[in-house]
């Protein structure tokens, strides 16, 4: 079997690295293609040091641009690679323009497309990522879902064949990286386990609107009177806090830090009491760590965590109110929402049965 994998953004590289390891174990030949859409591929990254990911066989060097321009360029160049390599299956990840381009090329050439992270749905329906997800799912032959809710989402759209609940490859990654978590931030700032909250805010709808960002600051200040908040500040957020004159209004109970790498961030989250975030990845990683999250977003792609009551959606002005409700309501941690940490192995087993 020949598998042609297409990636174009850093999160996709990380997921691919986990799947690649299992493909190699199974003796499956893989050709790795980097679209060049976003991520400056660098083997010194800690993920690739640990996972020992191979370098791409092809780099399409597409770069950034308008949606149509980028998608079109990737399709033109990727089609050439597909015609040359003649794969048995094309593997795509997530919801980027690279994902959409790879899926369309495979579908047009009648080569089975396998979509890792299929079935995720999120409002608003007109955002680019949602469009990419939906179209990719509808042209794919194999749909690898991270949760049972993702399976149900596909069923609602009439997609039932080739659908598999395999779990989330990011949980595989979490377990692989856990032995390397860095807890040095706790010692550096005198933080005590379960006595602080981790906060990250970076989405433009939260940071670029003065009213929203001001409400977030006010709510964090309120919470900090009851529990220490540790806030690694994204460059975009720092810029807007300064622009709106809000930096000086952040009270001393909110500890502002420079952005942290994955290992330090996971060490910090694992020992925290709670997470407040608008990050798609961190709201799920908090769950992996057994920590609840207040998600400062109108909707989330990880609705299953909201539906079971583990995570809570919040507007900018309601963060404190949601914090109080979480303090008073304890719930059970369902440990298998995203599988058992063997998602990549399951994906490869299904590919071998093709």
How much helix is in the residues?
Answer: 40-55%
Give the second-level CATH assignment, the architecture of the largest domain.
3-Layer(aba) Sandwich
Helix/strand-derived category reads alpha/beta
- Residue stretches low in confidence (pLDDT < 50, at least 5 long) are none
Q: What composes the largest sheet?
A: 7 strands, parallel
Multimer state: single chain
From the alpha carbons, calculate the radius of gyration and give it in angstroms. 21 Å
Shape: globular
Strand neighbour order, sheet with most strands: 3-2-1-4-5-6-7
Structural domain tally: 2
CATH superfamily of the largest domain: Glycogen Phosphorylase B
Order of helices and strands: EHEHEHEHEHEHEHHEHHEHEHEHEHEHH
- Total of DSSP H or I helical runs spanning 4+ residues: 16
Give the terminus-to-terminus CA distance: 9 Å
> What's the rounded overall pLDDT mean?
94
């Amino acid at each position: 079997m020949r598998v042609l994998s297409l990636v174009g953004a850093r999160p996709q590289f990380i997921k691919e690295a986990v799947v690649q390891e299992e493909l190699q174990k199974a003796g499956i030949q893989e050709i790795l293609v980097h679209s060049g859409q976003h991520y400056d591929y660098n083997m010194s990254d800690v993920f690739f040091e640990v996972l020992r990911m191979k370098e791409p066989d092809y780099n399409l060097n597409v770069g950034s641009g308008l949606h149509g321009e980028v998608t079109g360029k990737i399709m033109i160049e990727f089609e050439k690679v597909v015609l040359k390599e003649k794969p048995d299956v094309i593997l795509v990840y997530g919801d980027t323009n690279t994902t959409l381009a790879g899926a369309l090329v495979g579908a047009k050439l009648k080569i089975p497309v396998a979509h890792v992270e299929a079935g995720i749905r999120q409002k608003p329906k007109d955002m680019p990522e949602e469009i990419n997800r939906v179209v990719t799912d509808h042209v794919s032959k194999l749909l690898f879902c991270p949760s049972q809710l993702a399976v149900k989402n596909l069923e609602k759209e009439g997609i039932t064949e080739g659908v598999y609940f395999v779990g989330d490859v990011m949980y595989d990654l979490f377990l692989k990286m856990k032995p390397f978590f860095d807890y040095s931030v706790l010692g550096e700032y005198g933080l005590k386990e379960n006595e602080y909250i981790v906060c990250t805010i970076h989405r433009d709808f939260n940071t670029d609107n003065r009213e929203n960002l001001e409400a977030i600051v006010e709510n964090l200040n309120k919470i900090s009177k009851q529990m220490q908040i540790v806030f690694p500040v994204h460059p975009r957020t720092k810029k807007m806090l300064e622009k709106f004159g809000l930096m000086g209004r952040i009270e001393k109970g909110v500890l502002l830090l420079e952005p942290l790498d994955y290992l330090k961030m996971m060490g910090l989250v694992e020992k925290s009491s709670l997470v407040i975030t608008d990050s798609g990845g961190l709201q799920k990683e908090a769950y992996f760590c057994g920590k609840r999250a207040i998600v400062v977003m109108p909707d989330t792609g990880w609705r299953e965590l909201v539906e079971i009551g583990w995570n809570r959606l919040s507007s900018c002005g309601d963060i404190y109110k949601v914090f109080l409700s979480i303090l008073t309501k304890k719930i059970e941690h369902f440990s298998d929402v995203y599988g058992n940490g063997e998602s990549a192995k399951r994906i490869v087993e299904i590919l071998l049965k093709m």
